[in-house]
Structure formats: structure tokens, C-alpha cells
Amino acid sequence: MSGDGNSNARILVTGGAGFIGSALVWALNRRGYEDILVTDHLGSDEKWRNLVPLRYADYVDAEDLRWQIEDGGEGPGSFDYVYHLGACSATTEKDAAYLMRNNYGYTRMMAHWALETGARFVYASSAATYGDGCEGMNDGEADIGRLRPLNMYGYSKHLFDLHARREGFLESIIGLKYFNVFGPNENHKRDMRSVVNKAFAQIRETGRVELFKSYRDDYEDGMQMRDFLYVKDAVEMTIHLAETRSAGGLYNIGSGVANTWVDLAEAIFSALGEASRIDFVEMPELLREKYQYYTKASIEELRKTGFDREIFSLKSAVRDYVQGYLVEDLRLGDGE
């Protein structure tokens, strides 16, 4: 493992019961890290199940953490690493005030506190900050002010990127622009689950998969393209950047490859040993004007930091997810 990893390090993971957050804790456990404070907001869904196989020192509710920090006292203590992954990730969320408080305001508070206490601060930005991609998707570009997110979620993430640049934080912190991440521990995300997760359920129920039609002449139905990234790769990239102290700034977290939705669907059918049966359905009006037809992460900046690990191919990632987790309804860490 590259970087300055120390299994005795004290770590805070916000959103630690969520999809990428719990996968991160799992990956940290595999490296010997257990002195981890997990924070999240556990509602009435099944997100808590992601925590069951994991090893961590304590849990605190996200609002309690906010009060501890804002109180101005000792707060939750000192940490070597703060991974701030907690946020509302719904691209269809319309409550702009909520997104500003939860995604922008909370992240701003966490960043200032982490830097004041000497922690290495790593936070989740998003590929949604790139909007329709007309300004490119290159994390090496200096002028992030030219980006125009297509939804309020993307804007709430973009706003903190701008704040971090304005405050001069980007030299010492890590912002992660996650692309289309999929994999174990996302069951609780409901409508925001990956197409792999949703399609698996559709195939089990109907033997078929539904994909959105295209509403642009230059893309046939199902030929819209995404940079799909397996969550196991996403957390490897995340930890690498955190532990590479020479790294700082915004980094794309993606595979560097664009695949079509048809490619994805066919990989799912293949993992199940079934013939492909795809139906194209109307896209909801709410999404049509804000839909990204093409995403592909430029990951040269990540590679420059020394990340040389081989990335799962789409087919191998889907097979691992479907056969290793979805078929038996397992979480990361189950059976280990």
C-alpha cells in the first residue's frame, strides 16, 4: 500500500453507514484500522445493516456531531483522518435550503474544524458538478468557476469546491469527484440505487430490464454513456489519496472508461447466465432537461499521485457484485 498508512490512526467517517461510507470502513478494516468513529443519520430504512459486519470504535449521530463541533469545546476529539462522505446524494432533491445546509454548510463546518485540529480532510464532491460536460470533465482544470451543474445536488457540491479554492484549502485537502459508483451496501438508497441493483430486481421479477429512451438524435436508445465505477475501486482510490500526503485538490474518482447502458445491462444478464431482454421506456419529464448523456472521468491526476492499482472492468465488477452479493443479499464484510 502506498502512502503513510498507520493502523493505529484515529479516523472519523461521516456517512459511515451509507453506501460509499460503509464500503470505506470495510476497506479500512481490511488494512487493520479499527479506531474509527462512525457518524451518520440512521432513519427507518435498512442502512444500519451495512454496519453489522464492520469493526469501529463508536457511533455518533450526525446532528450530535454538529452540536459537539459547534459548541466550541473539545468536540469529538482529535483525528488523524476525517473522511467526510455524509450528504444528501439525491439528484432529484428539490429542497434547495436543505441541500445548502446539509451538503454545503455541514461540509464547510467539517473542513474548518478538521483543518483547525490538524486532521487530514477528505470530502466527497461529485461528478455532477461538471453539468452537461461542455466544459470538460478534467480535474486538472484550474477554472472550476466555469462549471454549471444541472441540478441542485450538483450545485451544493460545487459550492463547497469553490469555497475550498477561495479559502486556499485545496492545497492540503482532498475533494473526490465520484462518478457512477455501484456495488454492495447500496440497497437502502431506494430510487437512487444503481441500475445494476435495480436491474437485478427487475430480472428476478420479470426476466427483463428497463432502460430510458434517448431524447437526442446523436444517441440511440441505450447508447447514453457513463463512467461506471465499482465501489471497491472507489474506496481504494479514496484511501490512497488520503494517505498520499503530497496530494491535494480535486480528483476524479472514476474508471476512466465510458460504457453504454446497454453494456451494463448485458453484463448483468451475463452474470446471471441469462439472455439479454431490454425494454426502452420513457424518461420522466423531471429528468429530461437535466440528464447527462456522456460522462467519462479523466483520471490522469489520480495516476500522477502513484495510484497504479488495476481497476475492475465493467463486466468483472458486475459479476463480482451480482454473484458475490446480490444473489445472497450480502453486505461487505459478511462471512469474513
Q: What order do the strands of the largest sheet run in, or round the barrel if closed?
A: 3-2-1-4-5-6-11
Structural class: alpha/beta
- Count of alpha and pi helical runs: 10
Radius of gyration: 19 Å
- Give the DSSP E fraction (strand runs of 2 or more residues): 5-15%
Order of helices and strands: EHEEHEHEHEEHEEEHEEHEHHH
Uncertain regions spanning at least 5 consecutive residues = 1-5
Characterize the main sheet.
7 strands, parallel
Annotation, overall tally of beta strands: 13
Mean pLDDT: 92
Which of globular, elongated, flat, extended, rod-shaped describes the shape? Answer: globular
Helix amount:
25-40%
Q: Topology of this protein?
A:
Blueprint lengths: L10 E4 L4 H12 L5 E5 L17 E4 H9 L10 E4 L11 H21 L3 E5 L27 H16 L6 E5 L1 E3 L12 H12 L2 E4 L12 E2 L1 E3 H13 L5 E5 L5 E2 H12 L5 E4 L3 H4 L11 H5 L9 H13 L10
Parallel strand pairs: 1-2, 1-4, 2-3, 4-5, 5-6, 6-11, 7-10, 8-13
Antiparallel strand pairs: 9-12
Helix pairs in contact: 1-6, 3-4, 5-7, 7-10
